[in-house]
Amino acid sequence: MNRPSVPAPAPDAAAPTGRGGPARTRILLADDHALVRGGVRLILDNEPDLEVVAEAEDGAEAVAEARARHLDLAILDIAMPRMTGLQAARELSRIRPQLRILILTMYDNEQFFFEALRAGACGYVPKSVADRDLVQACRSAMRDEPFIYPGTETALIRRYLDRAEAGRALPDKAITDREEEILKLVAEGHTSKEIGEILVISAKTVERHRANLLQKLGLRDRLELTRYAIRVGLIEP
């Protein structure tokens, strides 16, 4: 399917080079925790071929930065306010199809891996191993190679073979993008009226989506929706 063309952003100042070598990879880093951003930035900026040139506190800000800057790679936390990393990845894949994307996550979860690929990411890295694997993941992304952090390949292959043997398909997305937006806002404590104002829809429409969520996911109330949102990485506990 052809993606709509989007004008390229105005170029920033010339990218610095690493010790006389080629231009460094220009990275956008999005995470709602300043300490995490600072630690990750130290790891990346210490490499001669990598440089963080922009930071964002949430997915919406990450999209805005990508529209305004010339970037090579976006590293997105999976659970952020306003727009999650997966939601931002989908939008970035649409407006900047040449931008490589990595998902940074607290969660080691098979579903996240497949969701990240569907959203346009070329891999994801748990924060617990970021100091060890993130640099390699960045370089793999820039070579257009998918990155699966060490220790996950065996589990993913085993699960895939188990599913194939049982005649089951790979996991599909359980809910729609709109339902995901509403689930995130419900879990953040917003009322139906507030959600309607944020998404520019009626409170009744919000209630209908919430009822569909409860039915699809086999849940009973807001508390269980919130627990589910934490488990799938839409919000952090």
UniProtKB/TrEMBL annotation:
Residues 11-23 have a biased composition (Low complexity). PROSITE patterns: HTH_LUXR_1, HTH_LUXR_2, RESPONSE_REGULATORY. The modification 4-aspartylphosphate is found at D77. Residues 1-23 are annotated as: Disordered. GO terms for biological process: phosphorelay signal transduction system; regulation of DNA-templated transcription. Keywords: DNA-binding, Phosphoprotein, Transcription, Transcription regulation. Residues 168-233 form the HTH luxR-type domain. One of its GO terms (molecular function) is DNA binding. SMART domains: HTH_LUXR, REC. It comes from the Bacteria. Residues 1-10 have a biased composition (Pro residues). Residues 26-142 form the Response regulatory domain. The keyword Ion transport does not apply. PANTHER family: TRANSCRIPTIONAL REGULATORY PROTEIN NARL-RELATED, TWO-COMPONENT RESPONSE REGULATOR. This is DNA-binding response regulator, LuxR family. It comes from Streptomyces albus (strain ATCC 21838 / DSM 41398 / FERM P-419 / JCM 4703 / NBRC 107858).
